[in-house]
Amino acid sequence: MTPRQTNLAAPGLLEAWRRRIWPARAGAFTPYLLLAPALLLVASLLVALVGMGETSLHLLDRSTFRLGEAYALGNYQALVERPVYLRIIAKTMLAAFVVTLVTVALAIPYAYLMVRTGRPRLRKLLLISLFLPFFLGQVIRAYGWLIVLGKQGLLNAGLDLLGLPGVALIYTFPGVLIGLVQYMLPFAVLLLAPAFTAISEELELASMGLGGRPWATFRHVVLPLAKPGWVAAGVVVFTLTLTDFAMPEIMGGGANDFIANAIYDGFFQISDAGLGAALAIVLSLLGTLVVAVIFTLIGVGTLGYVQPKRPAAAEGATA
Amino acid sequence: MTKAIKKGGRKGLPRRRFLQGAGAIAGAAAAAPVVLKYHGAIAQDKPPELIVRAWGGVWVESLEKGVSNAFSEATGIAVRHDLTEDNEIRPKIWAAVDQGRVPPIHINWDTTTNASKSALRGVTEDLGDLNGLNELLPLAKPSGLDGWPLVNTYSYVYVLAFRDEAFPDGAPDSWQVMIDPKYKGRVAIYDDGIGFHPAAQIAGGGKFSDIPDNMEACWAFFRKLKANAPLLGEDPDFTTWFQNGEIDVACTIISNARAAKQNGIAVSWTVPKEGAKLDTDGMWIPKGLPENELHWAKRYIETALSAEGQQTWCNGLGLPPVRPGLEPPADLVGDPAYPTSAEDLKRLLRVPTPILVEHESDWFAKVNEIMQG
């Protein structure tokens, strides 16, 4: 047998084996099989969430520091009755909305310029500036901000040189927001860039050819077509901010906690797993609710509940 | 001629002494295989290392110098220090014990309050058979618990630490300085308020004896403190803040202030007229260790409680040990934050551990509520 004959025989043999192991009639299940690992992963997270829900229904017994056997809603009651938790939830939601708006607003021109610029050097510079923070990680970036915004930091040193009064941004709520926006910007740009790339430049040229000014073209042509991109960016930034721990922990100075910090305190600082679990459930529900509302109101394509109707001609052609 | 021969009326051993001696020899001979087997097994089955949870910075440096190195030299067992936060290791140990797994560490160096919570949960080994416990100060024995589920190793004071430059006229004499608008944004406490509750209670016009039933004065003082924009942090933060000139005053453990001073930062400390909180740390061993590892973990704690261990370890930290008769560090002789006499202790505020165990979580939550406002 020549080597060529071997090569020809091998695919046939493999095909025979494939048919024996996975016959043609099982082909319909192939997509589900490929989905299985991801579904298993999601299912395990759901199981963990159910476990968390169960834990949240038990109260801490301080004579043994174990959760009691009886089911009770006391942990949820505590979240409602203690003003601190309502304040933390409100503060986290406010931060998530503000950071999302500011980040997406900053990411749109950045991503658009990165995609559309005709100057390769500028594109490279924008790409490097985008990816460099990824190599640093959130904790290092937060400590970097401490150096920049600290009372004796670079910002105040600069202001001092100019004879201007110093600003107290570190360990404040605005300081946390600044850190978060900087952290979230690359995520938003990366989600927006493919959306802008997918928009044909000819559409923009057509708009301008019809008398549309650049801003009008951007507003009435580019932005609507990039909607899947900025909706996705908004959802990702919102959920990441809503669940963030490190930035408020490091830059908040202990007085600007988010829900994740309160969850940590529940589990670790006061050893009350029931209370921590209740907060975790509330956080999950809040995130799910807001994302569901966003998808319902402005979601499009794969991010929308209501699929856009195809033109009749296209439907006929497909049929 | 010996007294024994005289009493027995004949040469050689008296009958009773002979029987006692023979009995002892027979008993020892009978027990020898068991004892030798036990110790032999342990000696042969030394674990390659022990893992001791510790706090970082000056804390772990002192432990290594005073205890871990001596233990390793004596036994040949390496000691690894796990710097996981005490609050974070606790649930891991609890879960391991509950699930019948080997716990992640051999010895937990912990606050007495947290250690007591673990004892109440039933996850701590009994340390009652440690050698030399009866030689220690009464402070070593945990209060409100049966037996020795943990052993306290030293006491410490939450002092009023201050930057020398900010107080050219000398140390502030009251905790009221923490709410002085002159120092707005330049004061610091621990992020959960630990160590400051009793001082705040008195500085706020309340009585120490009202703790825990009526702490309104304490919370009122915390509210005033909140208005003074305090920084909230953990042990290492205080050193950093003092180093960067970001704070002028803080309520922190004396060891942190002393470490900063030893590193060349112009920081001093005082016990204000209202007093300062006295507390203790201890060590405990989680249940679920193999027998040989438990044996050597206990030997490690014995090393920590030995005269040499306590002298070096506690002097490194600048804290009074639980073993009496040791020399205090030269720089702390006569310092009220290093209590050695009943007179010193009168100036300090010690909340009983059972009260801390029951209420401290609520106090943390209350401080959090005030500071998040």
Describe this structure in a few short sentences.
With 319 residues, chain A is an all-alpha fold. Chain A has a single domain, classed as MetI-like fold (Orthogonal Bundle). The radius of gyration of chain B is 25 Å and the shape is globular.
List the helices and strands and how they pair.
The complex is a heterodimer of chains A (319) and B (373).
Chain A: H1 3-21, H2 30-55, E1 60-61, E2 66-67, H3 74-81, H4 83-116, H5 120-136, H6 138-149, H7 154-161, H8 173-197, H9 201-209, H10 214-225, H11 227-242, H12 246-251, H13 259-269, H14 273-298, H15 312-318
Helix pairs in contact in A: 2-14, 3-4, 3-14, 4-5, 4-8, 4-11, 5-8, 8-11, 9-10, 11-14, 13-14
Chain B: H1 3-8, H2 15-44, E1 49-53, H3 58-75, E2 78-82, H4 86-98, E3 107-111, H5 112-121, E4 151-163, E5 187-190, H6 197-203, H7 216-227, E6 231-233, H8 235-243, E7 249-253, H9 254-262, E8 267-270, E9 276-284, H10 291-305, H11 307-317, H12 342-346, E10 348-349, H13 353-371
Parallel strand pairs in B: 1-2, 1-3, 5-6, 5-7, 9-10
Antiparallel strand pairs in B: 3-9, 4-7, 4-8, 4-9
Would you write up a description of this structure?
The complex is a heterodimer of chains A (319) and B (373). Chain A is an all-alpha fold and 319 residues long. Chain A has a single domain, classed as MetI-like fold (Orthogonal Bundle). Chain A is 74% helix and 1% strand. The radius of gyration of chain A is 26 Å and the shape is globular. Chain B contains 13 helices and 10 strands. The model of chain B is unreliable at 1-13 and 26-41 (pLDDT under 50). The radius of gyration of chain B is 25 Å and the shape is globular. In chain B, strands 1, 2, 3, 4, 5, 6, 7, 8, 9 and 10 form a 10-stranded mixed beta sheet that branches. Chain B has helices at 3-8, 15-44, 58-75, 86-98, 112-121, 197-203, 216-227, 235-243, 254-262, 291-305, 307-317, 342-346, 353-371, and strands at 49-53, 78-82, 107-111, 151-163, 187-190, 231-233, 249-253, 267-270, 276-284, 348-349. In chain B, strand 1 (49-53), helix 3 and strand 2 form a beta-alpha-beta unit.
